């Protein structure tokens, strides 16, 4: 049931790249947040570069078949964060600063730590399915606890 | 974002003899939003829509649509020029062809969007010269939708718009709906297609036995509603979980399953305090929320 859109990006160079956004309506997370995270992730991994243009609100909403308010909210929140620059009539442009690049390194470090932890839990005799459930429960639990504060 | 309501009702009520079709309904549908109106068959959705349009007279209560009193005949005429409505039974003239129907309907509206008309004619693959009475149910629906969409109204009211449509037709419908919303049209639609609603709607209203059970942004449902499954080393007591936000509890032996609309973290904390051996928190789909909501009424 995931909505998928192939988005053609026209970056500063003449090359055209395709990118995939996937929104899962039943994943328990607001759709605008999912879209924000995917755009952020694309910027952190370098899939989106400084100056790249994202589709207009209407175009992306039609491709993903979600309410235009969802796209508008994601774009405006990202503009607030400084990751997007919205220009009247012309669309949304990516502004990648130095900081976002180092986040990619942080993710790499985090994955290494997770790998160690998973290895340890396996040695303790836990099955992968059990680890996954515990991980998801903790993630959800802590996310909600943080949100309440 | 403006919070102005395009539809607003206060204690709107319709009785047929002893039967309450709609019971003291307080509805506020926001401008520039896509609002889904859900309910089982006979919950009062169509009666509500017909009262809003002035087609059924309320027994009590009042309401406005685009700021116009729904029971005032003069204001109603003005309001209906700015509202497009696709009825559940899609009334059309059987002796006209599709082409004649479109020419006839467009003659009433100076702002008729021929670009939208042309796009939908090709998307929907409607045969121009066929008579309306010879159309399949799906094609009738598509024609009725085209007539509403091409008017580009301020407010679009659709009663079961996806009825009779195949998956491709539904996809086109949702896409047009999204495009209209992007053009500033407020959308209010009833549907049983919950998976589709879940993608495009901003807000969800649930009606059950004529009463409003829920009126919430869909993103709030996603964020706060949870199913929590617990396993304890001893039979758990339901009263330990009388926490605000817990909507229902089912217990079976050592297992307990809770449905919460808020405070999932408090439930998890309590479960840990009570030495639960397994705690699983899962998001719930709109379908589950709907079934849970109409079950209790």
Q: What would the average pLDDT of chain B be, to the nearest integer? A: 91
Specify the helix fraction band of chain B. Answer: 25-40%
Number of strands of chain B: 14
Strand pairing plus helix content of chain B: what structural class?
A: alpha/beta
Calculate the mean pLDDT score of chain A and round it.
79
**Structural class estimated from helices and strands of chain A:** alpha+beta
- Largest interface (CB < 8 Å): A-B, 30 and 33 residues
Oligomer: heterodimer
Give helix and strand order of chain B, one letter per element, not per position: EEEHEEHEHHHEHEHEEHEEEHEH
CA-atom Rg of chain A in angstroms? 18 Å
Provide the low-confidence segments of chain A as ranges.
6-18
**SSE series of chain A:** EEHEHHEEHH
| C-alpha termini separation of chain A | 33 Å
User: What are the low-pLDDT stretches of chain B, counting only 5+ consecutive residues below 50?
Assistant: none
Strand content of chain B: 25-35%
Secondary-structure topology with pairs:
The complex is a heterodimer of chains A (149) and B (297).
Chain A: E1 3-9, E2 17-23, H1 31-45, E3 53-54, H2 57-64, H3 68-81, E4 84-87, E5 91-94, H4 98-123, H5 128-148
Chain B: E1 5-16, E2 19-30, E3 34-38, H1 45-52, E4 60-65, E5 68-69, H2 73-82, E6 83-86, H3 98-106, H4 114-124, H5 137-149, E7 155-159, H6 167-182, E8 186-190, H7 194-200, E9 203-208, E10 211-217, H8 218-224, E11 226-231, E12 246-252, E13 255-260, H9 264-273, E14 278-283, H10 286-295
Parallel strand pairs in B: 3-8, 3-9, 6-7, 7-8
Antiparallel strand pairs in B: 1-2, 1-4, 4-5, 9-10, 11-13, 11-14, 12-13
Helix pairs in contact in B: 4-5, 5-6
Description:
The complex is a heterodimer of chains A (149) and B (297). Chain A has helices spanning 31-45, 57-64, 68-81, 98-123, 128-148, and strands spanning 3-9, 17-23, 53-54, 84-87, 91-94. In chain A, the strands form two sheets. In chain A, strands 3-5-4 form a three-stranded antiparallel sheet. A two-stranded antiparallel sheet of chain A has the order 1-2. The radius of gyration of chain A is 18 Å and the shape is elongated. In chain A, β4 and β5 (91-94) form a beta hairpin. In chain A, α1 packs across α3 and α2 packs across α3. With 149 residues, chain A is of the alpha+beta class. Mean pLDDT of chain A is 79; it is low at 6-18. Chain A contains five helices and five strands. Chain A starts with a strand and ends with a helix. Chain B is of the alpha/beta class. Chain B has ten helices and 14 strands. In chain B, α4 (114-124) runs antiparallel to α5 (137-149) and α5 (137-149) packs parallel to α6 (167-182). The longest helix of chain B has 16 residues, at 167-182. Chain B is elongated, with a radius of gyration of 22 Å.
